[in-house]
């Protein structure tokens, strides 16, 4: 009986995070759970539209001259603060934001180097910083 209750609770949580446009909105309350679900079940999320907020950062991919962009938040682990989020591909012609700008990104899930990434259809800087440290 407990197992059924847990399944219904999780179904309710994840169903409540999608809006009428079938966009998976990854919010503050279950950020780690939802991001982890995309990583673990990438095959189920490929091509799906996701929206989330976080810190923007440009990351150098040594030894190549290419830069990548990520939108992430922090969580605590055994060894300190750990970032959790997605690599983001900016729309064509868009300049990157300043590092640590708080942005909202909407885009389609695809695979990059074997991991989920978001091909942004919309990315905007938000006027206020949201929840930087998430716990679940």
Describe the structure.
- The protein has 136 residues and is of the alpha/beta class.
- It has one domain: OB fold (Dihydrolipoamide Acetyltransferase, E2P), CATH 2.40.50.
- It is 21% helix and 43% strand.
- The longest helix is centred in the N-terminal third of the chain and has 14 residues, at 2-15.
- The relative contact order is 0.20.
Question: Helices, strands, pairings?
Answer:
Layout: H1 2-15, E1 24-26, H2 31-40, H3 42-45, E2 49-60, E3 67-77, E4 80-89, E5 102-112, E6 115-125
Parallel strand pairs: 1-2, 4-6
Antiparallel strand pairs: 2-3, 2-5, 3-4, 5-6
Short summary:
The chain is built from three helices and six strands.
Order of strands across the biggest sheet?
Answer: 2-3-4-6-5
CA radius of gyration: 15 Å
- Which structural class should the secondary elements be placed in? alpha/beta
Poorly predicted segments: 1-16
CATH architecture: Beta Barrel
| Strand-residue proportion | 35-45%
Span of the ends, CA to CA = 24 Å
- Specify the helix fraction band: 10-25%
Mean pLDDT, all residues = 86
CATH class descriptor name:
Mainly Beta
Number of domains: 1
For the largest beta-sheet, the strand count, sense and barrel status come to: 5 strands, mixed, barrel
The DSSP helix count reads 3
What would the principal axes of the Cα set say about the shape? globular
Number of strands: 6
């Amino acid at each position: 009986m407990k197992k059924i209750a847990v399944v219904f609770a999780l179904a309710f949580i994840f169903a409540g995070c999608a809006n009428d446009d079938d966009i998976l909105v990854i919010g503050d309350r279950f950020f780690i759970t939802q991001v982890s679900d995309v990583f673990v079940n990438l095959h189920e999320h490929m091509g799906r539209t996701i929206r989330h907020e976080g810190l923007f950062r440009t990351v150098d991919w040594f030894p190549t001259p290419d830069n990548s962009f990520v939108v992430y938040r922090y969580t605590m682990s055994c060894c300190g603060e750990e970032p959790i989020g997605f690599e983001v591909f900016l729309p064509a012609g868009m300049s990157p934001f300043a590092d640590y700008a708080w942005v909202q990104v909407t885009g389609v899930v695809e695979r990059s180097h074997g991991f989920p990434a978001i091909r942004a259809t919309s990315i905007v800087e938000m006027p206020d910083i949201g929840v930087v440290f998430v716990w679940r």
